[in-house]
Amino acid sequence: MKDIFGNALLDYQNGNYTEDIITSTSISDEDVLSLPYLFRTYSEMPKIEQKALDLCKGSVLDVGCGSGSHSLYLQEKGLKVKALDISKGAIEVCKKRGVLHSEILNVLNETETFDTILLLMNGTGIFQELVQVSKYLSHLKSLLKPHGQILIDSSDIKYMFEDEDGGFWMDANSGYYGELDYFLSYKNKKEAPMKWLYLDFDTLKLASEPVGLSCELVIEGNHFDYLAILTV
Ligand SMILES: C[S@@+](CC[C@H](N)C(=O)[O-])C[C@H]1O[C@@H](n2cnc3c(N)ncnc32)[C@H](O)[C@@H]1O
């Protein structure tokens, strides 16, 4: 990983904001990922993120924290938060913004336990592929304190396969439709392609049960997105 994402966050944090990140996927053309959006305040967040933050309790693990916007809000509310990310640049930004406890770490290597585990901005993305969902969910479950909760958001991207007549053109032979290749570039530098998983709520619920997690829908967002709560 070249950490293009982390470098872009660092540029913004250091006052060197000149352009946004460009993303594309295996099923969609180029799109702009606004750097200021990655530094959003509570009032600028979508309602499913606001709801997730409102539900946080006790000690919180912010998985894939990015610039630490969710961690900072919770910390200011008085909660004990640990922010983690595989991006070195992201964690440097968290520290510069005042997140007290942050670490460069893959969530699969986390060992502490928490009352709340937060995964936001398509939190299922880090699972990468459908076959990996139960591995990640089992691990997240092992990081929960008694009566703990996992708050995770994602989207059902089935709408992206809908044609003008309302029919769907998904290829039944090519795996789960939410498994995408994700491409990111910034200032003419390209990140290595990543796998990124969008999971519809029913599939998340189905994958949660064998792992011993109960999965409930908290709220739906404005665009096929939703927030789920997983408990033991
Ligand atoms: C879409 S960004 C979301 C950032 C932040 N949560 C937000 O809402 O602004 C996903 C983040 O997850 C991080 N990430 C991806 N896989 C991870 C893993 N296995 N463990 C920890 N962080 C991971 C990426 O580096 C990136 O910062």
Automatic annotation (TrEMBL):
Domain annotation Methyltransferase: ranges: 60-148
A molecular function (GO) term: methyltransferase activity
Keywords assigned by UniProt, alphabetized: Methyltransferase, Transferase
UniProt xrefs under Pfam families: Methyltransf_25
Gene Ontology BP terms: methylation
InterPro entries tied to this protein: Methyltransf_25, SAM-dependent_MTases_sf
Protein name per UniProt: Methyltransferase domain-containing protein
